[in-house]
What does this fold into?
Amino acid sequence: MKLMKTLIVAGIIGLVTSSAQAAGDAAHAPEHYWEHSGLFGTFDRGALRRGFKVYNEVCSGCHSLRLVAYRNLKDIGFSEAEIKRIAAEREFPAEPNEDGEIESRPGLPSDRFKSPFPNDNAARASNNGALPPDLSLIVKARIGGADYIHALLAGYKDAPANVTVPEGMNYNQYFAGKLIAMAAPLQEDGVEYADGTKATVKQQAEDVVTFLAWTAEPELEERKRMGVKVILFLLLLTGLVYVVKRRVWAKVH
It folds into this structure.
């Protein structure tokens, strides 16, 4: 029994070590400046709208946003008319009719973002066995957060001469093991921005990561505003306590 426990522990350590080594092969994602970072940082509304466009036209073909409803887009500057139009572009199963048949209906603002596949097996079958992750919380779920996702999206390049890339895989220096099943999703001028911004790969990566940072933490701005209010309150309270202390102890002296 003791030997069995030792072997199990050794196996676990081996798996952890090999995983760490694989992750260690990846290049460290460089730090990137984000307007929503820092104590007073807020989301760039223009970047959020552009990022949604990149997700909607490029990423949504494989990746879902199961935790986000269309009506949530109002928080980043979309009008009710725009939200209704965006939701109506997708079809959802309606309530069964009198014959018990389920028909389709246009999406509603209250619907969550339509997933590209009906289930995980269908997703794997369409992506050579790889399961595209849901992107709702991807920025918080990955070590390195926004910096890592940004570097990954812009990190595709030709593999070095001494590296063999298997069929169906792609070389990306920021991915663990440097081989990733997802092909480079972003291309120069892959989308057309309504505000005239040039859609370089770098720009698209920045915009879609900003959008995904919002989906992962939509309450970020409210949390920061509350934090500032709490700090100001504590400073005021500290000042009042100090004044009261001086007045109380002044009588003693």
